[in-house]
């Protein structure tokens, strides 16, 4: 029986340093009359590799299986992360891929995958506040998540120092009934922004507001979270950039570049 190897970050054609995968940039072949046949062969090979993976690991769920930027490796989108797979070695590769120019190829691919999943979302039921023309942060958040509360406090401090931020909040609360009630309270309030600030500042009232419109909005938020493949909070999107967790540096860089130009 063929043995399946699950390895950390290594591959014969890749150099490993400090747990990160580095690779040189590869030139793309120019157009030719053979391109359609070559594409068909590659598509067939990808389909065969995906089928073999599903047959070997029938319980393994993922959203997409595509060729990666590294020849010979496929990238598997599991929802909140990318992992790499070599069908020849039958090996999973966990890690971050950088090219020689210092570009994080894994982050780029992850951002593109999630943005693609989110492109047709209806955000009319999302909670939005802040100057309409300010840089937009889309946040998948949980009112009872400690890191979400820390992020909120930090963003409020940035606003007090003059930073302009527009926030679009989607409540990722499918796993918690109590968090769903807190989100419904915020969305049912006469001033949802004020209610949001209070709950995220750990000043949630004992009596929570309820309403049919708010409950429907919470269910829509849960659906959007599932369809986006989000499994952890906070998760943010900033001008197409995927930011997992409260990454203060990444958020600061986005705000500074967006508000003042690169």
Automatic annotation (TrEMBL):
Matching CDD domains, A to Z? Answer: DsbA_DsbC_DsbG
Q: Which InterPro entries match?
A: DiS-bond_Isoase_DsbC/G (IPR033954), DiS-bond_isomerase_DsbC/G_N (IPR018950), DiS-bond_isomerase_DsbC/G_N_sf (IPR009094), Thiol:disulfide_interchange (IPR051470), Thioredoxin-like_fold (IPR012336), Thioredoxin-like_sf (IPR036249)
Question: Which Gene Ontology CC terms are recorded?
Answer: periplasmic space
Matches recorded under PANTHER family: THIOL:DISULFIDE INTERCHANGE PROTEIN DSBC, THIOL:DISULFIDE INTERCHANGE PROTEIN DSBC-RELATED
Q: What does this protein do?
A: Required for disulfide bond formation in some periplasmic proteins. Acts by transferring its disulfide bond to other proteins and is reduced in the process.
Signal peptide per UniProt? 1-29
Name used for this protein in its record: Thiol:disulfide interchange protein
Q: Which UniProt keywords apply?
A: Disulfide bond, Periplasm, Redox-active center, Signal
| Subcellular location, principal | periplasm
């Amino acid at each position: 029986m063929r043995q399946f190897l699950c390895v950390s970050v290594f591959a014969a054609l890749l150099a490993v340093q400090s747990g990160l995968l580095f690779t040189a940039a590869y030139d793309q072949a120019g157009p030719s009359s053979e391109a359609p046949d070559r594409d068909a062969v590659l598509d067939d090979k990808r389909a065969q590799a995906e089928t073999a993976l599903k047959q070997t690991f029938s319980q393994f769920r993922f959203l997409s299986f595509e060729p990666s930027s590294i020849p010979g490796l496929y990238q598997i989108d599991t929802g909140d992360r990318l992992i790499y797979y070599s069908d020849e070695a039958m090996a999973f590769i966990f890690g971050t891929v950088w090219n020689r120019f210092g570009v994080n190829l894994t982050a780029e691919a992850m951002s593109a995958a999630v943005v693609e999943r989110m492109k047709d979302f209806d955000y009319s039921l999302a909670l939005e506040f802040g100057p309409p023309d300010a840089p937009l942060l889309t946040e998948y958040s949980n009112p009872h998540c400690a890191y979400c509360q820390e992020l909120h406090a930090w963003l409020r401090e940035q606003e007090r120092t003059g930073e302009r931020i527009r926030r679009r909040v989607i409540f990722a609360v499918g796993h918690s009934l109590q968090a769903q009630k807190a989100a419904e309270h915020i969305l049912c309030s006469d001033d949802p922004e004020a209610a949001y600030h209070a709950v995220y500042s750990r000043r949630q009232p004992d009596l929570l507001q309820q309403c049919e419109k708010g409950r429907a909005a919470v269910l829509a938020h849960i659906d959007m979270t599932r369809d986006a493949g989000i499994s952890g909070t906070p998760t943010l999107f900033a001008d197409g950039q995927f930011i997992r967790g409260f990454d203060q540096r990444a958020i600061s860089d986005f705000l500074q570049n967006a508000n003042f130009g690169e």
